[in-house]
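Methods: example folding runs. The two proteins below were folded one after another, and each record is reproduced exactly as written to the output file, sequence line first and structure-token line second.
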Amino acid sequence: MLLGVDVGGTFTDAVLVADGKVVTAKAPTTPGDQSEGVMTAVAAVLERAGRRAEEVTAFAHGMTVATNALLEGRAARTALVATEGFTDVVALGRQARADLYRLCAAHPAPLVPDELRFPAPERMTPDGPLRPLDANAAEALASTVAEAEPEAVAVVLLHAYRHPAHERAAGAALAAALPGVHVSLSHEVVGTFREYERAATTEIDAALSPLLGRYLRRLAERAREAGLPEPAIMQSNGGLIDVASAARHAAWTVLSGPAGGAAGAAFAARAAGIERALCLDMGGTSCDVCVVHDGAVGETGGGEIAGRPIALPMLDVHTVGAGGGSIAWRDAGGALRVGPRSAGAVPGPACYGRGGSEPTVTDANLLLGHLSPDAPLAGGVALDRSAAERAIRQLADTLELEPRACAEGIVRVANAEMTRALRLVTVERGIDPRDHALLAFGGAGPLHACAIADELGIARVLVPRASGVLAALGLVVAPRRRDAQRTVLRAGETLTAEAVAADVAELAQAARAALGAPEAELATTFELRYRGQAFELAIEAAPDATPTLLRTAFEAAHAERYGYCDPEQEVELVTVRVSASVSAPPLAAAAPTAAAPEELVGPTVHALPESTVLVPAGWRGTIGPDGTIDLQREPA
């Protein structure tokens, strides 16, 4: 019996898989303490399945604790220890504007204020120590930091990705001077070069880890009391790690929630035999989009959350503030806008009857008849049409529109935002969306999928039967995984097959040891560039790839991305990343469903257990034996 629980902005989803049967349940998210909503959802799914907690063999969890804390600016009191002269590296950043044409736009302030930045009397070069950090200096530094009474400390010293001795010495001194205080060392968190990105990521890791650690300890305790196994936590890279590791490194989990949805989308695409799919995960607060090719979601070596760089492997998921609870409003120019502010779980959309008074996308869908007021939403939420109409009428009056026209406008604006997000991950990257299927999931995704497909010229939409809880199902099928990465900067005479093999072997040993699985499967990524270029291309290759094979693959990728390659130019191997993973137990085939209609002809609305499918005019579809809805646009 496998259990997956995903915390969203509005609902917490639970999936229980046993003997080929998938049982699902939802419960309202509890923002004050997400673990309460998690345990409520678990109790609901166990009751629905008629099973006991003691029967669960594995428990996987995806959450938004770290993400929300970063977005809301909630962080522990954090100190930064950096090489003397480099304590302001995060504040200085890349000296690039936050927005090219808005001079008033600013980057987010560093999480560590000026008074909590401390210089370390040391200097490390790429070739070794120039100014050693002796034991007395490390102890004096730790004593100075301790006087500031921080809750967490980030240690970022120059070139620690290659020579971590000084960071380890500083970390040991800080641990002795500040027992119980979290310490993040950059070579453990990131392990790659680029001082700003490494420092910003380590700062995030230190600032969020105490908050996440408290939540995970509370959740683990509640799970233990309920008779459940200790939860495994979803990382941003789509793999699961143990609670202790996640609590030590919150930066690894900042995209935990979206990663579960992406993993579920990849699983659904493989199950449907789709090689090329665009995934639309529209929940209550946001919408996540990604591309699935050959049954896998692409990965990136880093990203940005709330304007802050994260130099860690993560699934290539793009998020926009367009969910069912996104609030519609009138901007200063008189235009109708939707999101990114959300009604969330408390109070929720106006139609939930929990005190919300602002119009949301869900209210608009209810007013337009896309949702039935007589059928409660998953989690037992009853819908109040009159409350939705009152909320939308207030906005409609300010826009000088009829309420129904305003509701139609809200849906169109939300669709436009999600269409823009899908264009960002396709058209703007040279991918034609028209030869992809649109895989729609999340509680609200199937309501909007066909309209978005029309905008992108997509002729096929797939909606899994478990679309409303697909992110939780993604947790069940996700592998356990640990990554190890290091900047090696090899070129010319140092870029040899023996050197590359040694780098891979060392990182593979570290990744497998961290995972506790000596026989774990390995996947390797090599980041290469032409000498003189500022950024690299990530090339996936076998662990035993030779420099010749890497160059061939790099030049092919370079030609595809930029339209040319230069056989005469020297190639540099910048970073090596090794992933060790252990696959989840395979799911048994689900039993075919019965009673559902075999054909859907638009316009119609079809209710699923945790979501609703809107089939507009000009679309028709069939329901497969496993409950998957396959919609296709009728020829013009």
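Second run, written to the same file directly after the first:
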Amino acid sequence: MKEAVSGKILIAPSILSANFACLGDEIRQVEEAGADWIHVDVMDGHFVPNLTIGPVVVRGIRKATKIPLDIHLMIEAPWEYFSAFKEAGADWITVHYEACASNLSEALRQIRQIGLRCGISICPRTEPEVLEPFLNQTDLILVMTVEPGFGGQAFMPEAIRKVPWIRKKFKGLISVDGGINEKTAQEAIRAGTDVLVAGTAVFGKPDRKRAIDELRSR
């Protein structure tokens, strides 16, 4: 499994911006172009105002690629689906603090118990200090730099200011998701980000290798 090594920035293209009519080909193209992970946004129409995909599609994605699948659960009661996504081929599962604040420790424990890496995501409105009790229980922190729910939104610079605070206290991976492009990627990297989740900045470009290289460059 690829993790940040020697300061390398990991790129996780978000399939929310891919062409679902040829999803397997899209995923193979970004893998060949140098993507490190595939980011999969799972939305239930309740926690966020959009509805996307479930384990059946993830199972198909797993057949199309060997790189890690980063499953971002933007759903209520995410623990009900951990095993299903594990069986579908997930490598990472990230849950939202806002969706399970009252039993977050148990949710993280369950993810690790089934052999997956775990992450916590926070929305732009959530202050990073809420994460402090859980920093030694998670492998990744995902900072949302747009309101979760839809791709193509504008980057919120005020959200990226959380990253330096997290970096000082957390030894795991820090990921940033939302409005990432060649310009905002550099801002995120300077703040201390390890993983860039990018949708249209990768899938929206004809030359995916160049797009990924530009995001990773400093």
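Comment on the second run: Residues 10-216 form a domain with the TIM Barrel fold (CATH 3.20.20.70).
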